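Supplementary Methods, section 5.1.

A reviewer requested that the exact input to the structure prediction be made available. We therefore reproduce it here, unchanged from the version used in the analyses.
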Amino acid sequence: MAHIVCTVSNCYFNKREGCTAPALDVDGEHADESRFTCCDTFIEQKPGVRSSLSEPKSNTSISCRATHCVYNEDEMCEADRIVVNGKNADNPEETCCSTFMPPEFR
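The structure derived from this sequence is encoded token-by-token as follows.
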């Protein structure tokens, strides 16, 4: 399980650039670059509503549908660390997994 760094500050699950989600789901079935991936777990933070967890999780399972990523092993992310970006995202498609790496760059 990877260490998750999340810069999507307006995500419900973001806590001090970590992730409090019970599981993370990265999409990008046809992605050949990180900008074509997204964090399907993203939920926009609403005023006054916060995740009940006070600390980011360290054992978050990460499913990955980015089939062209070198870290995808049977639809699970095998990277040691992933970075999710998407400043001021309004929906999952405005986020991305910056750790995505096509096989030719390995």
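The mean pLDDT is 91. These observations are discussed further in the main text.
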